[in-house]
Amino acid sequence: MIDGTHYRPCTRSLIVSAGLAIVLAGCADTSAVREQEHARINALESELIDAQAAEERRRRSEMRIAERLRLLDAERVKSQQDRQAASIVASENKSDTPSVRKPPVVTQIVVAGATGQDDEQSIWKAQEFPNPVDGTAMCAVVSEPVVVLNGTLDTRVRIIVGKSSVFLRTDATFDTETPETGFRVDAGFPITFDRFHNELTAVIDDSYPRLMRSLENGSTLRASFAYQPQLSSSETHVVEFTLDSFGAALSQLSVCDTSRTDLDSDSVPTES
User: pTM, whole model, 2 decimals?
Assistant: First the structure.
């Protein structure tokens, strides 16, 4: 007959072994969880670093555009002053001597509506217009077409403002490699094109809310772009649009949408 005292050491050993097994299993699970968490944190850090690098590249690009447009402003003022001075000299000293031709400017600046057109309201209109992406009809605020010379060729440029995108549309091929292109409202920070849908269409969609806030509160919109091939002596073209009538046209978009909704409902056949 075996005394119960012989079972106690054996029972204690079994209890200790079981406890150690549980602790080791817990440590293994904790190590796996730590590795997974470490991997997740590394992935988040990489995403954050990539986002910061992209934002820094965008900021530097916008700073270059701002400096470029600042120089254009100074050049435009100087050009106007030179023309006024030349006009005064010509009026004071009339002669038959042919004038010396000045070298071409670096940037061609065209002002929309500066062709003797008195109706300023016609610069912006709320209307149905073909979507530059897929050609379907959409309600948009559309600028008048502006003629821009590329060498001796007339090209036409217009801006189309939709509900989620702003388009710069032309009938000549854009130079998509030129970095200093985009929109600028008044003296604000330039907004570069988000992408080129095709060779004739530049698009703002990611920066749409930011651009719209500027358009609704601004007085002048500038569009900067370049052609390929660039037949003129200009490195870039700049077209200026007054925004005096933009707000009124933008407020009419709801009327256009209502008309489209009524037309769409009328075109749906009813059950007899």
Answer: 0.58
